[in-house]
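Subject: Interface between my chains keeps coming out wrong

I've been trying for a while to get a sensible model of this assembly. When I model each chain on its own everything looks fine, but I need the whole thing in one frame so I can look at the contacts. Pasting all components below, labels as-is. Any help appreciated, I'm running out of ideas.
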Amino acid sequence: MTALIIAEHDNRVLKAASLHAVTAALHCDTEVHILVAGQACAEVAHAAAALTGVSRVLLAQAPHLADGLAENIAAQVVALAPAYSYILATATAAGKNVLPRVAATLDVAQVSEITKVISADTFERPIYAGNVIATVKSSDRIKVISVRATAFAAATAGAGNGAEVVSIDAVADSGLSHFMARETTSSDRPELAGAKIIVSGGRGLASAENYEEMLAPLADKLHAALGASRAAVDAGYVPNDYQIGQTGKVVAPDLYIAVGISGAIQHLAGMKDSKVIVAINKDEEAPIFSVADYGIVGDLFELVPQLTTALG
Amino acid sequence: MKILVAVKRVVDFNVKVRVKSDGSGIDIGNVKMSMNPFDEIAVEAAVRLKEAGIASEVIAVSCGPAQAQETLRTALAIGADRAILVESQDELQPLAVAKLLHALVKQEGPGLIIVGKQAIDDDSNQTGQMLAALGNMPQATFASTLSIADGEAIVAREIDGGQETLAVRLPAVITTDLRLNTPRYVTLPNIMKAKKKPLALSSPAQLGVDVAPRLAALKFSEPPARTAGIKVTDVATLVARLKNDAKVI
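Reply #2:
Try treating it as a single job with all components included. I did that and got this:
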């Protein structure tokens, strides 16, 4: 049995998110191949080939594969699918976009966001904002699976592991869609998904200016990533991709500092697997305190600067 | 141009569900049910396109039990013109729903299909992409802005690290993210009007779709509960705890 992993990358760098899918695939007890579909992305293929447990990298390059268009990437995966028992991707925005298109084309179910491999055909996955864990069994010949990154360790590059890199023919351009523009938030801070420490702000910050003024110095001190609750994103304090929660990003850092976040179940769904949670909130009844290891009840506008100073 | 929107009846987002004591399912006997919030955004987006003169008709579809008629009435009250319920008491998994919607797309011939990106009950995030695949249509998922021009939908999508803009040829499938719009409040006169709008009934058998589940649910359980820790009174104590007890800084 062999698993095919759809690598996520920007044609230059293999995204760390993909490393977790490799580990999940190895738990299914299979040989692991990685598909790198893009344009001028040979470096990504070589990074993938160095990962422990990976035995082959398939490299498909074409201009119409450059921007991750779901129609073309899915077609590339479907063309390879008959040789595989598993097709996996990490449940990032990119993985969630492409994978169901692959599954439906193959007429198989998709198992979304698995958090555990029980056996070769049985998996655990959270539903209802993580309040329920469902154990599901797939009887499809090809199992299409998205992987929750925080539930599986990242695969590492092994010294001397040099999987073969095989160039394959790119599928034709579907012509159904085209890429126009991408705006990414450039930041010197770590990415939310892989950060060891996250400082996250909610409605209590009350404005974009306050969010920046209160949380940026704290995040700088801790080398932390910045996140937010839906309320803070909806209010325009921070961009969309800061959102942590059921339908945003799911994170599990060593330390999560929730500032002015009340803790709706949808938010808790995205962060309650963090190792240590700190909550700063003026409302002592706020649900965030029910999951926090350490809570301080008080005015965040006094406490956060104190904390930043105390960290030296 | 017709627009087809799909809506799902789900446990209301404010309800914390419980697993049945024997682990065989979720206890949703007496809990409040609502339209999936992302689907509400989908209906709003479709109705706004009609109000802007871009769409001629908005058709709301739901696949599920007879009670999903209530959900469809809400869609009609927001401004959809007519509704179709594909009635089934059986569990409908995303691939089955995508096949049912695909059958309706073939009947109705919409230029645009708008669905929520994810249902907040099973959190699958699959149906829109699957429908696009079955119809060999392009997809623009996690949409935060949407406009129509020259036979294409121009969509800004929420991605990790920012956003990107795609042009997709119509007919296409759009899945909604939270920032696409804020759905309007449904007013009483519109609820009254919605009662008179047509609601047709169909079924998987009539549409010729096999909806047998592909994934067997073996068990449901509740995750280990995280317990509340301690309240500290000042920042110095917090820092000391994080350094000495938790050892995370």
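Reply #3:
Confirming on my end. The radius of gyration of chain A is 21 Å.
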